[in-house]
Amino acid sequence: MFKKALYISASQFAVRNVLKTTTTGVNSLTPVFSSLSTVKRLASTNSNISSSDAIEKETFVSTDNVVADSKDAFTTTSTNEKKNDIEKKDTPELLEKLDENVHIDSLKDANLLDASIHKALDRQGFRTLTPVQSKAIIPILSQVDSDIITRAKTGTGKTLAFLIPIFQHLVKTRRESQYMVRAIIVAPTRDLAIQIENEIEKVFYKNNYGLQKFETQLLIGGTNLRESIKRMEKKRPNIVVATPGRLKDVLSDERVAKRFFKFVDFKVFDEADTLLEVGFREEMEEISDMLNEINENGLNHIRTLLFSATFNDKVEALSNKLMRKENNTFIDTVDENEPEVQEKVDQHVTITSNLALNILSSLEYIKKNMDTQNSKIIVFCPSTKFTSLYGTLLTKVSEGKFPVYTLHGKLQQNTRTNIVARFKKQDTNNSRGNRNRNSNNTSGGVLVCTDVGARGMDYPNINQVVQVGVPTKLANYIHRIGRTARAGKTGKSMLFLTKAETNFLDALSEIKQVTIENQQKVSSFEDEQIKDVVCKVLAKDIDLTDEAFTTILGFYKGVTKEYRLNFEHLCKDVGLSYTELLRERDIDGDKEEGEENEDKKLYIPQSFVKNVIQVPNRRLVQWFNLGKFVKIEDNGFENKNNRFNNSRGSFNNKFNNRYNQRGSTRYNNSERGSNNRNSDNNYGSSNRNSDNNYGSKYRRKGSGKNPSFHDDY
């Protein structure tokens, strides 16, 4: 709950000058954005009223009762007229147009936007603000003594909504603390932090060289910390864009913190709900406390801007910890009656009978779209290993006709950065990035990724988003499809689900109010050429294949409860699909009559069964290769010997004997864990000398520990 908070609603943004009565009984005139002249007031934190009760009552304000002379009635929350630098007579008239498109000229005329920033935006072609920008920028600029929370759909221009006020503040106070960090922007992923830095370069620096004096510094994991500090010493940045882990590391050094961060005016938390989802709550609270404690202007000086696609109890609790101002403003640009997804996304779902058919059908679908249309597609997969495997499959299926990029959190940072940059530059109207330079097919290309590419990332001209299987979290479905239909454009989403995953659709409808009307079912697959390619690729890199399918089991275990899935049915599907995809096919007709293929089963060790799957072995043995075991209890079996001691004859066929050459420790430990614990998250690769760790043994974090199979981004 917020102290003396204003609730700014969404549908229409007519502005009224409303007599605001605070919890202390003090009256003041404050410009309030309202939906149908509605103001929802949140109770003080000193009150015993619950969060739901606090916003239950609505105050309806008639337009007839609005103060006649709005110019005289307008006041800001700041008592420092010079610092605010706003002409009272112009701002109310501008605010009353928030239900319309706001032109940057209007901001300039109202002295809310400096000429240098106006020049940069105009040259970039940003002449009219998006609805989110207009509803966030003006309160941030005018209510200088308020912290701001903004809820907005993805792809609506949130980045500029905080960058423009930051640059406006830097220009207006350019003579104050010129060589100190004045604004800090915290992003959940390295890739998003890099994108924000690139946006600053593209919009402000390149279009107005005068703004380059306000230097920007990137502080993210996967880079050399000492070199980053040296660059700060040399550049003396005014803006820092960081990930939580690395920023905490820097601030933990008291000498460095006091040298650069004593005069911070803004701290921005972008994608706050994602920051919470990936476990950064403690880091964010510590960062906020450290910045407040060392600030020369006082504990409550720093303004907090929090942007989130969703606003739930966790985000609200976080905001209470981060925000120190007396007045807080919550701006909701999402109509409560509207679904959270972008209306311009054409959503489809294909339901297949099993995982094998899901993989084959999705590969065929992408290939046909790339062959017949000049498309740019993002494909989301549930785990790092499966993403690597699927990228390899799609590359082979594509036959070099379009480029395929693979992105996940196990890649080294420079590799990830290069992949993102190449895919962003890939245009649907040219083929400069096409790997097959002799191909006549011009294509935008395909990016296969984990959820590292789902939140906040802006990839230009995405025609379609494809999801293979259910997402890691229910909210991630919305974030994933938000990569298309951005900036007013249209787009398409295709979700591939197995029959065992269809309960996800019910959860999506009940919790997120998102119903996918366009549904089709697929029960067979006729393209023998794609089947053969898939079989050969899986058999050729059997280590990666086994690891990918094993992580799918762990992934399913993590989402079963949220989506109300039947885990045993999912296990059966994974096991039988593995066998089906690796079944050899007599395409050339050279197999002797009566000769049968030898079915292959996915090997899973008992430690994985006990710690993760937790399904009785008497059922699992039907679908998986569990090695040599003896019955010890009525509820299952247990391995007699560990994997290293098993004899070559302990497996059910000659094909699986190769497993004896590989250790099993990787199954006992989380492939998600990173040895770079000082980074922003687990995004760093545990194999620092390679861009991937496709057959490597995972490092031991603790014998017998239950691995975490949430995607490591």
Automatic annotation (TrEMBL):
It comes from the Eukaryota. Keywords: ATP-binding, Helicase, Hydrolase, Nucleotide-binding, RNA-binding. It catalyses: ATP + H2O = ADP + phosphate + H(+). It holds the Pfam family DEAD. It is an enzyme of class 3 (hydrolase). Residues 139-329 form the Helicase ATP-binding domain. The keyword Ribosomal protein does not apply. This is ATP-dependent RNA helicase. Residues 641-657, 667-696 have a biased composition (Low complexity). GO terms for molecular function: ATP binding; hydrolase activity; RNA binding; RNA helicase activity. SMART domains: DEXDc (SM00487), HELICc (SM00490). RNA helicase. Belongs to the DEAD box helicase family. Residues 358-529 form the Helicase C-terminal domain. Coiled coil: none annotated. It comes from Saccharomycodes ludwigii. Its EC number is 3.6.4.13. Residues 641-713 are annotated as: Disordered. The lineage of its organism: Eukaryota, Fungi, Dikarya, Ascomycota, Saccharomycotina. The Q motif is unique to and characteristic of the DEAD box family of RNA helicases and controls ATP binding and hydrolysis. The keyword RNA-binding applies. CDD domains: SF2_C_DEAD. One of its GO terms (cellular component) is intracellular organelle lumen.
